């Protein structure tokens, strides 16, 4: 079955070969291209732990896991990878990680080059980064593979069932699966992962570090007086910025002086969000230009890695990818910042998280832009309700502590019990 998979990849492999011969652009794009083709990768001594997360959320988890593993595994090189440029910017430098790079394309020869360079003793995959040739290369070399914060969206589960000939052997070879909850654990065992390899470690996103710096420092930096009300919209998807701006303008009629923090999910949409803001006659400041909100209506977060802290400035936050059919992003970041969270109807990718937030009373689901406006108005105006939701969020995060410790124990356990990994 993997032969058919690789045959289907032949046109992509030809395109990648041609791409590798195109004239070079910027140094950063050149490095990304080369590493995706398995070139210019860091070369590490044998025995590395390779942790991979695809994009922003997974890269944040990979970085957090590396920070926890670093002191407990002295002498083990740590290598971190991501797929997207945005995720790559969030991977830490030494001393937390010995190497950070773009994950190579899932072509057999490219993966062989990558494994030659990284020489891993263990491959740790965040959530659902299951690439057939990467896993086949690991299996051929006796490198155990662990999936942490493991989750399978329903559509992915259906795909794996349809392609059981391809994914079945791959899943059965996993050395460990740390599932986010019991539902996810059952999905992995239903696909053939040995029950002895599956355990429930919890959702690592409940344990991401609290934002820094403090809110008072951020207020001074961005010119937000303590009395000014702010709402935030983070990780917005394509077409969602306009809906958010609609909601903001409606909320501002009931809450004069209200400010908005708007953070598009991907850098290639920073400019379009700025254009949408300017087209409405709204005064705008931009984080990337070190501009301030005093004298502005909307602060565009056109930089990477600052949103989690900026949530602290808001009385209420909306998490994007939920008013449009994306499936949602991390609903817990606002709660970690002490802010109630709002989200739309499309939460397929974070369904369990959304249910937990709703049960805790820390968040609310809105149907559309008008509903978002009403929710913002209510939370800005009602301090008692806002504090009740903040307390619900605090209790929710506290109740789910321990996922990181259990995940670290899983990784260390596989290293200890796998002869090949231990010998490396």
Task: Tell me what the structure shows.
The chain has 20 helices and 14 strands. The chain has 424 residues and is an alpha/beta fold. It folds into 2 domains: 2-202 and 402-423, 3-Deoxy-D-manno-octulosonic-acid transferase, N-terminal domain (Rossmann fold, 3-Layer(aba) Sandwich), CATH 3.40.50.11720; 215-399, Rossmann fold (3-Layer(aba) Sandwich). The protein has a 7-stranded parallel sheet with strand order 3-2-1-4-5-6-7, with helices on both faces. The two termini are 31 Å apart.
Could you list some keywords that capture this structure?
424 residues, globular, 2 domains, Rossmann fold, 7-stranded parallel β-sheet, alpha/beta, single chain, 20 helices
Record the SSE blueprint.
Elements: H1 2-8, H2 10-21, H3 27-36, E1 48-52, H4 56-72, E2 78-82, H5 85-89, E3 99-102, H6 108-118, E4 120-126, H7 132-140, E5 145-150, H8 154-162, H9 164-172, E6 176-179, H10 182-190, E7 198-200, H11 215-222, E8 230-236, H12 240-254, E9 259-264, H13 270-279, E10 284-286, E11 298-300, H14 307-310, E12 316-319, H15 332-336, E13 341-343, H16 351-360, E14 363-365, H17 369-381, H18 383-399, H19 403-417, H20 419-423
Parallel strand pairs: 1-2, 1-4, 2-3, 4-5, 5-6, 6-7, 8-9, 8-12, 9-11, 10-11, 12-13, 13-14
Helix pairs in contact: 6-7, 8-9, 12-17
């Amino acid at each position: 079955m993997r032969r058919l998979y690789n045959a289907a990849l032949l046109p992509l492999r030809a395109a990648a070969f041609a791409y590798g011969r195109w004239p070079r652009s910027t140094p950063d794009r050149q490095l990304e291209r080369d590493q995706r083709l398995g070139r210019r990768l860091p070369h590490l001594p044998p025995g590395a732990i390779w942790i991979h997360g695809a994009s922003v959320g997974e890269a944040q988890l990979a970085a957090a896991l590396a920070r926890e593993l670093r002191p407990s595994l002295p002498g083990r090189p740590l290598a971190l990878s991501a797929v997207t440029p945005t995720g790559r910017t969030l991977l830490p430098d030494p001393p937390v990680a010995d190497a950070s790079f773009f994950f190579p394309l899932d072509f057999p020869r490219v993966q062989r080059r990558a494994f030659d360079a990284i020489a891993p003793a263990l491959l740790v995959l965040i959530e659902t980064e299951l690439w057939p040739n990467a896993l086949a290369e690991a299996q051929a070399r006796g490198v155990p593979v662990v999936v942490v914060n493991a989750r399978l969206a329903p559509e992915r589960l259906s795909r794996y069932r349809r392609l059981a000939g391809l994914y079945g052997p791959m899943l059965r070879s996993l050395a460990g699966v740390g599932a986010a909850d019991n539902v996810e654990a059952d999905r992995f065992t239903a696909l053939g992962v040995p029950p002895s390899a599956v355990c429930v470690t919890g959702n690592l996103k409940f344990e991401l570090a609290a934002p820094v710096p403090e809110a008072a420092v951020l207020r001074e930096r961005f010119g937000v007086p303590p009395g000014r009300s702010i709402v935030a919209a983070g990780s917005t998807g394509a077409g969602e910025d306009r809906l958010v701006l609609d909601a903001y303008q409606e909320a501002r009629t009931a809450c004069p002086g209200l400010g908005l923090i708007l953070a598009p999910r991907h850098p290639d949409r920073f400019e379009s969000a700025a254009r949408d803001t300017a087209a409405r006659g709204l005064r705008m400041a931009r984080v990337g230009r070190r501009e301030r909100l005093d004298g502005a209506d909307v602060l565009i977060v056109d930089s990477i890695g600052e949103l989690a802290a900026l949530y602290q400035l808001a009385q209420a936050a909306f998490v994007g990818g939920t008013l449009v059919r994306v499936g949602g992003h991390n609903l817990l970041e606002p709660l970690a910042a002490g802010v109630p969270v709002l989200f739309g109807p499309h939460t397929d990718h974070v369904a369990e998280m959304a249910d937990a937030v709703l049960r805790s009373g820390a968040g609310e689901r809105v149907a559309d832009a008008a509903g978002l406006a009403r929710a913002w108005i209510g939370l800005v105006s009602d301090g008692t309700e806002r504090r009740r939701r903040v307390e619900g969020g605090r209790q929710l995060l506290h109740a789910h502590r321990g996922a990181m410790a259990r995940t670290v124990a899983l990784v260390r356990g596989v290293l200890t019990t796998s002869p090949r990994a231990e010998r490396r």
